[in-house]
Amino acid sequence: FQRVDAIEMLKQALSLYIRGTGQGIIMDEEKDKDLVSFLLEFKASLDKILEESFAKNEAFSNTIKESFEHLINLRQNRPAELIAKFLDEKLRAGNKGTSEEELEGILDKVLVLFRFIQGKDVFEAFYKKDLAKRLLLGKSASIDAEKSMITKLKTECGSQFTNKLEGMFKDIELSKEINDSFKQSSQARTKLPTGIEMSVHVLTTGYWPTYPPMDVKLPHELNVYQGYI
Fold it and tell me: What is the pLDDT of residues 21-51, one digit of tens each?
């Protein structure tokens, strides 16, 4: 194609292939649960084509980027939401058989998809909501992996994008220190009834998702300690 000055024709054919191959899956809501896995596999196959068939030619690299970005944003914000949910599934405790190295590799691959999506604020909203549940309920598969993902997002989008996410981790660490300090206090050791296990999270307004206020009635045995917490 270079010899007959027809590279542009080949680029157009590649672009049509990318857009046509993925459009049916992207637009089919019934296939949402497999969408991120499909995008990861499709992107990997395109990277292989770029390397083996087009010798990493920059023109074809740009064609793949532009076409893939068009494809992934056909449904506006839905892919951003599904990518956040996919990460939540991978970062949750219970992913048996996945090593730290494999998890790190998955995070890197998903980050490539993240670069293409336009609704990054939508991704941030869903990611923050899921992260809050993992942190508050102790459901993270790996805190190191959680912090690694935050670092990747910070490198990609800047500190302003991850400021609240980092603040959530600080709140969890500070809450642990407060709980440990209370448990070591003389009041807790001498007066807290046997068999009562208490854990309190102190959260900074603005860092966490907004939850509807709830009236909580503490039992008398705990009520007397409010002044110490």
Answer: 988 889 988 989 999 999 999 999 999 999 9
Q: Which residues are registered as beta bridge partners of 140?
A: 92
CB 110 within 8 A of CB 44: no
Instruction: Give the integer Cα–Cα distance in Å for 61 and 59.
Output: 5
All domains in the chain, ordered by first residue: 7-228 (1.20.1310.10)
Furthest-apart CA atoms within the chain: distance in Å: 89
pLDDT in tens, 102-153: 889 999 999 999 999 998 999 999 999 999 999 999 999 889 999 999 999 9
pTM here is 0.85
Residue with tokens 């497999």: 34
- How far apart are alpha carbons 226 and 188 in whole angstroms? 11
